[in-house]
Amino acid sequence: MYANNMDSVRDVLCFFMDEENGDEIGFVQFPQNFDNLTTNDLYSSSFNVLSKVELHGMDNDGGPPYIGTGCFHRRETLCGRKYRQGSKSESLRWDHHQRIQDSASVLEETCKPLASCGYEENTEWGKEMGLKYGCPVEDVITGFTIQCRGWRSIYFKPKRKGFLGVVPTTLLQSLVQHKRWTEGGLQIFLSQYCPLLHGHGKIPLKLQLSYCVHLLWAANCLASLYYVTIPSLCLLRGISSFPKVSSQWSYPFIYTIMATSAYSAGEFVWCGGTVRGWWNDQRMWLYKRTTSYFFAFLDNILRLLGTSKSAFVVTAKVADNDVSKRYERELMEFGAPSPMFTILTTLAWLNALSFIGVLLKLAVHGQTPDQLAMQIILCGLLVCVNQPLYEGIFLRKDKGKMPTSVAYKSAVYALVACSLAYV
């Protein structure tokens, strides 16, 4: 991130120095904006809905979270101080010491502890002072504890963007980044800092629930994995997972699907996106839920069992010229083998085989698809969403195509799953 608005500091001081409510403001959060997004936001990295809708809602409920960048903090909040109504902020006080000229060797020895950061050991730094260490999303937990001490946060979105940054330019980088975020979010929810427990009586209930919505992203993997596998496998056996289309019991399903899709698309376009960008957003939600969220969920379970520890993974933001050109052309980058790509490709094979299989069965036997219509539509939509994956497997010849080893291995896994569905 880098500063893009010379008035940002002045604007923030207006909040902090407000005579009526300035003393209760702990930090001012700017939205995240990026200057390397593609026209249709290939990897759904813009956070348009989050910055233009959700964070404004949290601002009304008690204050947005600290999102790790583009934020101005009051010094007292990072020093662990609680807000007390009516108390004025302490002015900066500096102890003036007489300067003593020491030899170079003495100064060198004095600087060594500072350079090694050993002065933080066995102190409150990283616990009650400064950022809270030990969590992949230390920014969120730090902002949450500041709010629990009575401070209020402000969400400020000026016309001229205050800060700009860059987003990952490959699919794997984006998935790894979201894995870290969701792993840290679930870790907070399962810890003593769960908003429903630690925030009880300290922040509004609406703000507690707003935090929970984002901290529980990883748990979405369970339902998503079910809907992309079980209905498709049931198609091969002719087992219906939904009511007949001609039945009145199908109306709630049809209404829910149409209403949520129309609302989601309308909201996305209203926030400045495109229809194709919304489709990319739906694809990335599917990819994140079945890979990033799934691995984040597993890592949290293993951590609770004591067999794994959380690690902070830095997301690479620098790409070579070929990768950058493919990104600008909005071609998904699959070039490197990864367990995440193995899962995605296996699911893509599975849905393609199920979709083709059920269509052949209906054509051969001349059956009407009324009983399985909703499953066929679901499977067909999953095939359409996975179009870039099929292109990466069959059509592309550049270095960004799906690795052959991943494609073959995933095909075997999918065939085994389809074979077991007949047993």
UniProtKB/TrEMBL annotation:
GO BP term (any one): cell wall organization
Transmembrane segments: 211-233, 253-279, 334-360, 372-394
GO MF, any single term: cellulose synthase (UDP-forming) activity
InterPro entries: Cellulose_synth (IPR005150)
Compartment list: Endomembrane system
Keyword Glycoprotein: no
Keyword Cell inner membrane: no
Primary localization: membrane
Swiss-Prot/TrEMBL keywords: Cell wall biogenesis/degradation, Glycosyltransferase, Membrane, Transferase, Transmembrane, Transmembrane helix
Gene Ontology cellular-component annotations: endomembrane system; membrane
Protein name per UniProt: Cellulose synthase-like protein E1
